[in-house]
Amino acid sequence: MTTPSRTTVGIVGGGPAGLLLARLLHRAGADCVVLEARNRSYVEERQRAGILEQGTVDALRACGAAERLDREGLVHNGIELRWNRRSHRVDFPSLTGGRRVWVYAQTEVVKDLIALSTADGAPLLFDAQVTAVTGADTDRPVIHYTHEGTARTLACDYIVGCDGFHGVARKAIPEGQLHTFERVYPYSWFGILADVPPSCDELIYAHSPRGFALHSMRSPTVSRLYLQVPNGTDPASWSDQEIWDELETRFAVDGGWKLARGPITQRAVLPMRSFVTEPMRWGRVLLAGDAAHIVPPTGAKGLNLAASDVIVLARAFAHWTATGTTAALDAYSNTCLQRVWRAQHFSSFMTTTLHTAPDQSPFETRLQLAQLDRVAASPHAAAELAENYVGLPVE
Ligand code: FAD
Ligand code: DHB
Q: Are the C-beta atoms of 124 and 14 separated by less than 8 Å?
C-alpha cells in the first residue's frame, strides 16, 4: 500500500477498536487510514479477551464481519458461579429478555476484520509506529509516524486514538484538561491456554478460600483458564501439574465434578487495573477503547467497551458527514462515559466479590459470600448481574 499523507479520519492503533471503527467508516463511505505499530501476525495472535456481548455481535453482523463468528462462535446462555463448594447457574435469556453472549476470541475478531480490510483495499498500515499526535486544537490535526525507517506525517480532519493503554494519542490532550481515575488491584490473573476440551458447557467463575478461578474456552477442543495469583508472579515458576492442581482445588464442588487436564500451550500473568480518562475527546482528537479506559477482566467488559465506543463514534461521524454539524461528535465523550462508568462498576463488583485480597479480613469474606448467596436466592439480584454481563444496549 502507498503511504497517504492526508485523510478524513486518522486512526492510531489497529486493535479491535481501530479495526472495527475503520470497518464501520469504510462501509459508510468515509475516508480513513489505520496506522498500527506492530506487524500483522503479532496483532492477530495476541491472546486476550474471549466473550462478545450481544451488542458487539450485532455490530459485527451489521458491518458484514460476522460470517465466521456465526459459523464458529459458541452461543452461551448463562454462566456458573461457584462458592462454598456449591454452584449456581445464572440464566441470561430468562433474566434479560432473551439476550446472550458469544464465545469467540479477540484474536479471531481481529483476524476477520483485517481480512475484510485487506480485501476491500481499506488503508491499514502495519509496522507504522505513531510517535506523536499534534494540533488537537486546530482544524487540521496531524499524526507523526515512522514506517520502513522513514518519518512521515498524516494530516487529518479528525484523529481517533485507538492505541491502547500505553498509546501516544492520549498525550495530545493537554495535561490540565485531562482527568484520570485509577485503581490498581493487589492481585493478577495467571491465564493459560490448553489443548483440552472444556470441562464445562458454560463459563465457571469460582470464589474459593485460595482465591478466584475462571474456566473459559476458545473452542470445543481448546480451554482457557485463569487463576488469581499475587502481583509479580513469574508464570514460569509454576509447573503444569501445580497449575492443574490449583485449578482443581479452586473449582471443587460437592457432587463430583472433574477438571480435564491437557498440554498447556500458552501462559501469561496479567496485572489488573481500573482506569478512566475524562474527557474522551479534546478538540479534534477522540479516544476509544483501552486508550481511554481499562477495566479488570472479571466480567469480560474490555473488548466490548472498545466496540461500543467505536459504534457510537461511527454514528457520530456519519451524522457529521450527513449534516455538517458536530453535535454528535461533541456529545461522544459524555455518551460513552455513562456506559464506561457502568462497566467500571460492574467489573469492579465482579472482581471484588470473587477475588480474595491479600489483607482480606474474615468479615469481608463473609460479605462476599452473602452477596453470592443473594444472587442465588433472588431473581432480582441475578438479573442485575445478567443484564450487566450480557451488556447494556448501546446508546
Ligand atoms: P488494544 O487491543 O490494546 O489495541 C491497541 C493497538 O494499538 C495495538 O494493536 C497496538 O499495537 C497499537 N498501538 C499502540 N501504540 C501505538 C502507536 N504508538 N502507534 C501505532 N499503533 C499503536 N478483556 C477481556 O474482556 N477479557 C480478557 O481476558 C482480557 N485479557 C486481556 C489481556 C491483556 C494482556 C490485555 C492487555 C487486555 C486484556 N483484555 C481482556 C482487555 C481487552 O483485550 C481490551 O479491552 C481490548 O484489546 C481493547 O481493544 P483496543 O483496540 O482498545 O486496544
Ligand atoms: C474470558 C476472559 C474474561 O475476562 C472473562 O470474564 C471471561 C472469559 C476469556 O478470555 O475467555
A: yes
